Amino acid sequence: MMRLRNKQKATVGGRSFVFNALFVLINLIGLTLVVMGSHKNFEEQFMLFSFIGWILIALTGAGLFIFQGRLMMSNVSRVLVGGLFIVSGLVKANDPLGFSYKLEEYFEDGALAFRIKEWFGAPGFSLEFLIEWALVLSVIICVVEIVLGVLTIIGGKIKLVSYLLMLMMLFFTFLTWHTANCDSSMKFTDRDTYEMSNPIAAMKIEEAKTNKEIKIISKDSKELVIEELKQPQCVDDCGCFGDAMKGSVGRSLTPKESMWKDIVLVYLVFWIFVAQWIIEPNTKSQNIKFIIASTGVVVFFSWVFGWYFPIFFALFCLIGGLWILRAGGFFLGNYWGTSLIVSLFSFVFVTYVLMYEPMKDYRPYAEGSDLVKMMNDGIEGKYESMLVYKNKKTGEKIEYNSTSQEYIDSKIWEQKDWEYLEMTQKEIIPSRIPSITDQFNPFLAVADVTEAEMKLEAVKAQFDNAYVDGYLVMDLAYNSEVEVPASEFTPDGYPDTDYKVIKEIKMPNPEFTEISLRDYITTADRVVMLSVKNLTEANWNQIERYKEIYYGCKKANIPFVLVCNGSREQINEFRSKNKWDVPVFLNDETELKAIARSNPSLLLIGKGIVKGKYPHRSTPTWNWIKTNVFK
Asked: Structurally, how many domains does the chain consist of?
């Protein structure tokens, strides 16, 4: 009994500090090889890298258990996982609205929910009720990540933390697995309920008569229940690091890369989980070592993301958490107090960015951004047509470039043991859409142009194309007059036997249907653009300040435009209610969400460069703009 009570305490070195340190290093090398082997850049070395990697992981894993090195491996994992969780949580907390938009994509009925419908035969299952809670969930996830990161580093409540880390990482791994393996061409059974007063109900009843993929389950005077085969909505970006990865290194992680990132984290969390019984809260000297090591992880990711605030935030949370642990007294001098103070810091930060704009703006419309460059930074992909042949005896497959000399010289099509299987496209250079796509296109239908828009020189210039040369022609067969654009009037299309030219005319240009400010905004010397995500839900407490800026721009001959997503009725009501005849143009709401999180937000643009960007709570005066921006 005495021997059991005096059982030796687990140490970092275990039975051999040197051996365990080597095991940890080689284990991480093996993990790196496995991940590298999964990447498309190492397709040819996949088997080699995977084999060597798994062997190294298995052997060193066994060695760590034999030499009692679990504590050392768990300490390394705590540093890596804790540092990454703080950065990941903070990057998402920097733009909680953006993260909530991503969650909304997952909550759509054809996105994540279709897996449950498919696996459990529950066509009526839906996650759409969570859409209205997306922002709340976004904030909670961000804060929980930061708190878990801090507690992991300082060793607080490690048993509870290890369970929460494992549950969170298993969920995120499932999420990224779903994203990486989503096939938009497949179909699943979905069940929807419509009120009979809804016009869609009548439409579905008619469709069910001819469409075998739609089946009426029940129908009464109040509602209609149908089952329908639908295609899943595949999310192409998990949003793991918000827009930070895309804004800093030029692209987000691919779904497969995100999945492997989470697999690595699950593996590291596993070591924390299996060592939870021997991990004890840090001593003072251990806290210093862990904070220095984890700060190194934070510094690395801050460098990757080009944002060094996470370093100060991480130190602030770690030191603040340890301070409350020591000075919090009976109620707060524990790890619950640490969790509370870190949560408070995180909520203060989230509240600030929700009230204004992300502290670090990674979107293509950030202050200082070159809009023209962002419109042209896409990459056109390069692909090769590959012919796949299969050996009838061995089943071996071989690929040839269809135009290569190697394929011609092989004459494989003449060999009896080989048969043609298929033609595939091999990606040589991956394509990338521009940071700013054609979704950014402030426009207005010609029929909706008012005097307010006509005062803009850009609009007047486009009306020069409102009329084109044409002919008034008599259609002899029907004895009727027809207006024909000169560019379309050809002898073959309008032969003399059937048509007679009456006179040359100026006629409305059939191709002139809308006014676009896209080119003008990106080339004009100075433009002020008021971006409004939703005209009716916007915060108009600063309406008088906006009107002041509008009239100041008018005197200085600087174009001022309001770009929003709304109906003609909403625009007319807005102008009438606020007595403000401002030029209004329309744009897709998705792009307006990307332009600014604040609703509304003021952008000052000069020759395509965003000179200033101000949320409604910090809108400057016209005099300040004139002095500091438009000098």
From this structure: 6
